Amino acid sequence: MTRSAAQAGATTRAEAVLAGLDDEQREAAQAVSGPVCILAGAGTGKTRTITHRIAYGVHTGVYVPEQVLAVTFTARAAGELRARLAALDVGGVQARTFHAAAMRQLRYFAPRVLGGPMPGLVENKLRIVASAAARSRLTTDRTSLRDLASEIEWAKTTLATPEDYPARAKAAGREPPFEAAAVAQVYASYESAKQRDGALDFEDLLLVTAFALEEHRDVAREVRGQYRHFVVDEYQDVNPLQQRLLDAWLGGRADVCVVGDPNQTIYSFTGADPDYLLGFADRYPDSAVVKLERDYRSTPQVVGLANRLIGQAPRRKGLPGLRLLGQRADGPEPRFTEHPDEPAEAAAVAARCRALIDGGMPASEIAVLFRINAQSQVYEAALADVGVPYVLKGGERFFERPEVREAILLLRGAAAGGSEPGLLVPTVRDVLASTGWVEHRPPPGGAARDRWQSLAALVDLAVDLVAENPALDLAGFVGHLAERADAQHAPTVQGVTLASMHAAKGLEWDVVFVVGLVDGVVPISQSLNRPAAVEEERRLLYVAITRAREQLTLSWSLARNPGAKRARPRSRFLTGLAPDSGPTAPAARRSAKKQKVVLEGEAGELFERLRAWRSQAAQSQSVPAYVVFTDATLQAIAETRPANLRELSGLPGIGARKLELYGADVLSTVTG
Fold first, then answer.
1. 44 annotated to a ligand binding site
2. Comparing C-alpha atoms, which of 542, 547, 540, 518 is closest to residue 367?
């Protein structure tokens, strides 16, 4: 092939790479010389854009494939980058996680940098942390060891030394499992033990590689000669340690393309620092900034809700914000549903899942998203009760968690000694107290709090069952737990996904239920005294909402247990989004007229009759319509068609006063 023919072929391939991209994606793909910042909103084709950018750079001759290093955060994401580049006829590009890239380089340079072969890696910190804690005379269990290990990881990723850990932890609002000074002592002992063993942990991989580039000119010259063009995916999640390594790779050069979404910054608790993304244009004043805002994932209705949620956040200093533009055909409006208690909320979600699956929706296209893993138990049970298979993403099934297995063994042993009816709940509390669980006192530390919440869920279950059967004893409760565990251990290949909001990032489904939206859960209680942490909770809800392609339901319950006082406030983030939401109710009601609840057939007709009745009742009393009943309450009435006052009183939003005022009229409207 002649040189001109080869050039023509490369030009054709380069043009083909740009075909099918929208205007903004094409602009980003053609910006092959750094510095470049691509602000990519949810569902805007981020991976497509950066792989086409690399391919365009290769096919136009700007890049030598082997001189491109693309780094991301998961092996799955790196594998997807490689697969897409191969499909674009581009080979040789290095697409790796930060740790994999550092490992490859350090293994090669270890003799020069470390004076010998690559040291062994600490696969699990717990053994060394346990020894370090024992030397510090701390009493620990597996849960507190996990939290100690997490604190050490946070310290190392934020470049905090044992000496400055206490001050840095306090400034960051950390909740360590022990006093900060004790954690610092364990951290120092851990580092000493690791050095004596001649081992490196995963944070050391990045730190030592950065040190090699900073202090060894020959190593820096070789690495920087090899890699001339850098792409960093999910840049909003970069931590100070990763940024230090990236700076060492660059060595003062600016041929770097970063890709991220400031609205999806949800990992600050692990050390991620969004300021690197937000301040990119300040650091590189001549950088090109391209915004991808066309959302190809979700319907305009889902996109609109996500925009309204994030639009309520305070403006952050730095790069401009993103406002998604839905590109799909219209779909149903998001649903907002209120429930009397958590089991009722879970039962309603499970019933809806059952109906969707019976109507032909694949179970794998449905997800239930919650804030904390302990919330999964009530949904696992509710789905099992209606015969809907499920898979738990990013965590163990409730009955497989170590603390739950241990608790059930203790409860079984206590039941063998006999128990009295009417004392189930106190007995369960006493048994769990023997494991160190203290009611109403969630401990600090992520793993410890997860354990506490799992055990609290067992107490809540006991309370629920006693409300149904006051004569239930401990043996009956243990038997019930066994039945639930058996039902939920059935093989599930295709199932509804249960996942925390964090675990859902990067995934998407046709139908999404975002549940448990009450203050103290979303936003989580430990964030409430820190405005920055509350705003991260808002972004977490944004991530959950943008997982939905077509159908989205947001729900909350007024009480945790049946029969309890219905006093829990729904999430503050729903103000101005859900119909009749407090100070913005007039605007919300106007929005509700545009966002009618999606009901069909007889339920839809009844819903409209109830709205007409409500309008008349509100007018006669000179009050806003929502003061009579919210749309969510009317929806529940239309769907359940209560036959008497007792059935009506069990619906959300109907207390004794409203039952007295409106009960008879509502039943008359239901019967026509």
1. yes
2. 547
Query: Closest by alpha carbon to 351, among 390, 388, 381?
Result: 388
42 annotated ligand-binding residue: yes
Kindly report, residue by residue over 605-628, the tens digit of the pLDDT: 888 888 888 888 878 877 667 668
CA nearest to 343, candidates 83, 615, 122, 558: 558
60 labelled binding-site residue? no
Is 639 within 8 Å of 599 (Cβ atoms)?
yes
Distances (CA, A) of 143 to 147, 229, 432, 448, 516: 6, 43, 15, 5, 25
Q: Which two tokens stand for residue 47?
A: 């991976």
Sequence-ordered alpha helix ranges (H) in 251-336: 275-278, 280-283, 300-311
503 and 394 Cβ atoms separated by less than 8 Å: yes
Contacts of 428 (CB under 8 A, 6+ apart): 411, 458, 459, 462, 474, 477
* 427 labelled binding-site residue: no
Phi-psi region of 631 (alpha: psi -120 to 50; beta: other; left: phi over 0): alpha
Annotated ligand binding at 47? The verdict is yes
31 neighbors 278 (Cβ within 8 angstroms): no
Q: Which residues pair with 366 in a beta bridge?
A: 511
Q: Indicate the residue type of 14.
A: A
The whole model's pTM is what? 0.74
198 is in an annotated binding site: no
Taking the C-alpha atoms of residue 69 and residue 11, their distance in angstroms, rounded to an integer, is 23
Is 317 assigned a ligand-binding role in the annotation? Answer: no
3-state DSSP assignment of residue 152: helix
Say whether 359 counts as a known binding-site residue.
no
Q: Kindly report the average pLDDT of the chain as a whole number.
A: 86
